[in-house]
Write a structure and sequence with these properties.
Shape: globular
Distance between the termini: 17 Å
Radius of gyration: 22 Å
Mean pLDDT: 97
Order of helices and strands: HHEHEHEHEHEEEEEHEEHEEEHHEHHEH
CATH architecture of the domain at 28-270: 3-Layer(aba) Sandwich
Bound molecules: pyridoxal-5'-phosphate
Number of helices: 13
Low-confidence stretches: none
CATH topology of the domain at 28-270: Aspartate Aminotransferase, domain 2
Structural class: alpha/beta
Length: about 425
């Protein structure tokens, strides 16, 4: 009998062109040209008589996030490190970090000389498990970071309760969740600070960028210093040719400023975000319905009970054990990729077993043997994160911008691969 699956030489389920990401809006080229000729390509150059794109974006994004203040940064990683330091976290302090995330969740903590404590996630939302957080808090814990992962919002009520009872700042990492809402508010507005990445794959992107949002003016001022080599933006009038950044000497920083080019692109993209998110949600709901109709035991990632709007950064589906007994998750992901023509992948590797999370390879962290033992990721157990990694496949949000008949093809591809899974067995 011949092979049916595309990965084993059979016909592909579809040859259609899928939407690509990122997608520039109508304003981007004009704004970029405006920056080019403005005489000011970053806020760390002299003021040129008009508001920078960086300031425009800070105001617009704070408003979008339901926060009063926003400090844009060069990357999401720097935003995370800056938010933690601005909340008072430093050398040797423990920071709770979800065990299923991109390496930056741990490396940003290491970067400020603190200790990531890897904590397991909830099996249905893939976000930080509040009970595991409670068990991990010690007298050395100085902050909790939570990631709203893939398409879920974490259980913020439970996490805020833990943070408040222990007097700890909660930092919401919203790198996957631009525009998601919990109760009445957008994510990022619940924690002591919210952190965003605008790296090229994200729902709101300018290639590389980030932001910290907060309602606390002291945290915002510290974040400003930390991202601009110890300078903050002047609050009084500034003349043409003068520096808008003031050297206060209050708090040493590094340079993680967002350039004017990046801020201009973000202004363009922010205008598009809500409409794109609505299309993604419509497609995701449609696909969830179609996958359910297949009756094949596929379990779509859930979100916390308090979520009012999801933002689909990645659409994630858990495969049933019977299927995984025949073929491993990575082979099934590759078979789906071959049918559909866009990448279907496993989730992040758990941070206790991730080749990108190896503090021992960096000389800068080798302060002493005790510290090195504390930051060794393999000392943590993350059974739920491991199970998710070994059973969940996911794909990127741009696919969800396709028309609904294309979304039907995705469900058909799952049906086809599952029907012929024996072709993937050893
Ligand atoms: C959850 C999470 N946090 C932080 C980051 C870091 O953001 P950046 O790549 O902009 O430094 C990422 C990047 O993908 C992420 O997924």
């Amino acid at each position: 009998m011949g092979n049916s699956l595309a990965i084993s030489g059979g016909p592909r389920l579809t040859d259609r062109e899928w939407p690509r990401w990122p997608q520039p809006g109508d304003q981007a080229l004009k704004s970029l040209e405006d920056v080019l000729t403005s005489g000011r390509w970053t806020i760390s150059c002299a003021y040129q008589g008009r508001q920078s794109y960086e300031r425009q974006f800070a105001a617009a994004f704070a408003d979008y996030c339901g926060s009063t203040l926003c400090v844009p940064t060069a990357t999401g990683t720097s935003a995370l490190a800056i938010a933690l330091e601005a909340c008072g976290v430093g050398a040797s302090d423990e920071v709770i970090v979800p065990g299923l995330s991109w390496v930056a969740s741990a490396s940003a903590v290491l970067g400020i000389n603190a200790v990531p404590v890897l904590v397991d996630v909830d099996p249905s939302t893939y976000c930080l498990d509040p009970a595991a957080v409670e068990a991990a808090v010690t007298h050395r814990t100085r902050a909790i970071t939570v990631v709203h992962a893939y398409s879920a919002v974490a259980d913020l009520d439970a996490l805020l309760d833990i943070a408040q009872r222990h007097g700890l700042p909660l930092i919401e990492d919203c790198a996957h969740a631009h525009g998601a809402r919990y109760g009445k508010w957008p994510v990022g507005a619940f924690g002591t600070a919210g952190v965003f990445s605008m790296q090229g794959s994200k729902l709101l992107t300018c290639g590389e960028g980030g932001a910290v949002v907060t309602d606390d003016p002291e945290i915002a001022v510290r974040a400003e210093h930390l991202r601009a080599d110890g300078r903050m933006l002047r609050r009084d009038a500034v003349g043409v040719g003068e520096m808008e950044l003031l050297e206060t000497g209050q708090l040493m920083g590094s340079n993680a400023c967002l350039s004017e080019f990046h801020a201009a692109v973000l202004m363009d993209q922010l205008d598009l975000l809500d409409e794109q998110n609505a299309r993604r949600t419509r497609s995701a709901n449609h696909l969830t319905g179609r996958l359910g109709e297949l009756g094949l035991g596929l379990t779509v990632q859930e979100t916390s009970a308090g979520t009012t709007d999801r933002a689909y950064y990645r659409y994630a589906v858990q495969l049933p054990d019977e299927l995984l007994a025949v073929a491993p998750v990575d082979r099934i992901a590759r078979a789906l990729t071959a049918e559909l023509g866009f990448p279907v992948m496993q989730t992040h590797r758990p941070l206790n077993d991730n080749p990108l999370n190896r503090p021992s390879t960096r000389r800068r962290f080798a302060t002493d043997a005790e510290y090195m033992a504390r930051v060794e990721p393999s000392r943590f157990g993350l059974p739920v994160a491991k199970r998710i990694h070994e059973s969940v496949v996911s794909f990127g949000h741009e696919v969800l911008l396709a028309p609904l008949d294309a979304i039907d093809d995705i469900a058909s591809a799952f049906g086809k691969v599952i029907a012929h899974v024996r072709e993937l067995a050893d």
